Amino acid sequence: MFHATMRSAIEGARTLAQLDDLSRKIWQAHAAETVTDTEAQGLAETLHTRRAAVRETVAPVGIPLGRVTLFPAKRLQRAPERSVAIERRRRLACSGPMPPALGSRFTTGQLAVLRIVGNEVARNGACGLCIDAIAARAGVCRRLAQAAIRLAEGDGLLTIQERRHQGRKSDPNVVRIISREWLAWLRRGGRSAAPALWGSIGCKPIHPTDSGDPQRQVVDGESKKGCRQAAGDFNRSDQSRIRASGGAGRAMR
Length: 253
Known about the structure:
This protein is mainly alpha-helical. The protein contains eleven helices and two strands, in the order ααααααααββααα. Strands 1-2 form a two-stranded antiparallel sheet.
């Protein structure tokens, strides 16, 4: 009875774990003298044949030969249009991603990367984008984006929180800005505090009154005369000159 039951169980097993459990039960029954030596040997041979058949159907688990990781190889990241990526990189670097005193330490590509990080921090409080997304938005390669973030971390401008998972793919790192100057720059919208003082620098326009200037009053009074009054003054002055010239001629005769 036990022999027939175990043989049907071996033929119905689908996993190696089930076959291992049946193998233990067979030899435990043999130790308890429930089955004879011949029956135990026959069951063991049947189990070995079934184990070989199951092993052929099981997909291999682990790192394939010639690879160092379980995950598929990453594709090489390239910009569809290199000129467009260069133009985006320069535009982001020139948009003022951080104060000039801090930005002078980085190159154009690194400033473009930090601009993307700063935008995410200003919007969400932290940057949780993967490194590929940051590089694509900044128009740079993956390695340059990693180097820029690590360089800023070394200068004490930001922190990087790694989110690793054992045996599976890790989550993207969380980047947080800790520099007070950079955070203040982001709160002002990327503008310096100096332009606010430009309105108070320079000469103040002065508008003096003309009450104490008699010459200005005379000039203003003459300019207010009408055209007819001015013409009348001109006619009277001409008539006086004619009379004077006529009197002088009669005296000469």
